[in-house]
Design goal:
The complex is a heterodimer of chains A (about 250) and B (about 190). Chain A is mostly helical and about 250 residues long. Chain A has two domains: about 1-30; about 35-250, MetI-like (MetI-like fold), CATH 1.10.3720.10. Chain A has helices at about 1-30, 40-50, 50-85, 85-100, 105-115, 120-145, 145-155, 160-200, 205-215, 215-250. In chain B, about 35% of the residues lie in helices and about 25% in strands. Chain B has one domain: 3-Layer(aba) Sandwich (Rossmann fold), CATH 3.40.50. Chain B is globular and about 45 Å long. Chain B has helices spanning about 40-50, 85-90, 95-105, 120-135, 150-165, 175-185; strands spanning about 5-15, 15-25, 30-35, 55-60, 70, 140-145, 170-175, 185-190. In chain B, α2 (about 85-90) packs parallel to α4. The chains are: A mainly alpha (about 250), B alpha/beta (about 190). The interface of A and B includes residues 151 and 166 of A.
């Protein structure tokens, strides 16, 4: 408990340090166009939160980004399972996964704009970003599965479902956890970036774009802060669900 | 049920012949100790009897539908499961009080809900032993089951195991004459 309080105090002190530094630089520059101060940003965020547009934009972007993330998790896990089982599938998809990992978000976005229009752009981009991350991590987990545990399951004739959850899932969950933590943050980053390029009506990306057009730096920072908070909340919530699952599996 | 039989088992690794026409009918309802120095083929024999390794020659006659349980050379625990979950994985549901009693009997009180990865080597060995003896089996294979236990704990565990395996068919690999004398009804020297 004492350790946790100490850790929280250190984190709070570090955040306070950066906020003070930000405030001082903003005061020194003394230009709202160049750099809005943290106080202005927080004030603007509170103003935005109560507008009906804010919730609509959040729902629009979050819904699509999280849908893309969920689809990416499903596709990544399925592909990893198939690649772990069938060598030819692994060989076939390996170059595609490598390419997906290194293709710039901007290229994917432009391609998606041509193919599918701007409305569901962030679904597509989030999906493309999360799939290779999840697939590679899960495949690494599958490769590290202990074959001796498979023999143990065979000797004790452990039923299939229990074998899946107790032997395999328990070994895979730490990889799933790492993959999802990384993917969810990247989905938010790339999803919003795609919206800035595609400027779909009612999205957070469009709000960011508009703040650039009208030189509303405080708006830009406020929306950015909103994205950071949303991404953090999604990550924490998802990690909580994974932890609950992990505890259940751990105790069987 | 029928007896477990090994008939003319032959196994070699490269030029090294570890089992050369080994035959034995294992005592039904009794403990057979397979005694020998390290590297003489004891674990290989056990793996062949369990069906985990194929012999180069000869055959194993395992009674039909025999349920087997084992303590392997390594612990083979699911590291991310708790100690009791590792046991429930093979035994199915087992009352918490019963499990606590069994854990206590081998000096593992309080370790039930700890993930296996956090246990010491000796504790993991005892969990692996509990998993085997508490499961439903007709034949039990034990490969150096008391490896890594200090003398005091080993004594406690030996008594516990002796009580648990009474009247069961057990094949037990060891290099320790003392363990052999204490547990075995018959001894096969390799």
């Amino acid at each position: 408990m004492k350790k946790r309080v100490k850790k929280a105090a250190i984190t709070a002190a570090c955040i306070a340090f950066w906020l003070i530094l930000w405030q001082l630089v903003a005061m020194k520059l003394n230009s709202r166009f160049l750099l809005a101060s943290p106080i202005e940003v927080i004030k603007r965020l509170f103003e935005l939160v109560v507008t009906p547009d804010f919730l609509k934009s959040v729902m629009f972007s979050a819904g699509r980004i999280l849908l893309g993330f969920a689809l990416g998790m499903t596709a990544g896990c399925t592909l990893a399972l198939l690649s772990g089982k069938v060598k030819i599938i692994r060989a076939l998809f390996s170059p595609l996964i490598s390419a997906m990992k290194s293709v710039p978000v901007a290229s994917v976005t432009i391609l998606a704009l041509i193919w599918a229009g701007s409305k569901n752009l962030s679904v597509f981009v989030s999906f493309l970003i999360s799939t290779p991350i999840v697939c590679s991590n899960m495949l690494e987990g599958i490769d590290s599965l202990d074959p001796k545990l498979k023999e143990m399951s065979k000797v004790f004739k452990i039923p299939l479902w229990k074998r899946f959850t107790g032997v395999y899932l328990s070994q895979m969950l730490p990889y799933f956890r790492a993959a999802s933590r990384l993917a969810i943050g990247l989905c938010w980053k790339s999803g919003v970036a795609a919206e800035v390029i595609g400027i779909p009506q009612g999205s957070i990306g469009r709000k960011l774009y508009e703040s650039k057009i009208y030189l509303e730096t405080a708006d830009l920072f406020a929306w950015t802060l909103a994205v950071i908070i949303l991404s953090w909340l999604c990550e924490k919530l998802f990690m909580l669900l994974v932890s609950i699952l992990q505890k259940r599996v751990e105790r069987m | 049920m029928g007896a477990l039989k090994a008939e003319n088992i032959r196994k070699q690794f490269g030029e090294n012949v570890v089992l050369d026409n080994f035959s034995h009918e294992f005592k039904e309802g009794g403990v057979t100790a397979v005694l020998g120095k390290s590297g003489c083929g004891k674990s290989t024999l056990l793996n062949i009897l369990m069906g985990l390794q194929k012999p180069d020659g000869g055959s194993v006659i395992l009674p039909e539908n025999a349920k087997i349980a084992a303590v392997f050379q390594e612990n083979r625990l699911c590291e991310n499961l708790t100690a009791s979950a590792n046991i429930r994985l093979v035994t199915g549901k087992i009352p918490r009080e019963t499990l606590s009693k069994e854990f206590g009997a081998v000096g593992l009180s309080g370790a039930e809900n700890k993930p296996a990865r956090t246990l010491s080597g000796g504790m993991k060995r005892r969990v692996a032993l509990l998993r085997a003896v508490l499961s439903e089996y007709d034949i039990l294979f034990l490969d150096e089951p008391f490896k890594g236990l200090d003398s005091e704990t080993k004594d406690e565990v030996l008594h516990y195991v002796k009580e648990k395996i009474r009247g069961k068919t057990v094949v037990f690999v060891t290099h320790d004459e003392g363990e052999c004398k204490f547990l075995a009804d018959e001894v096969v020297r390799l």
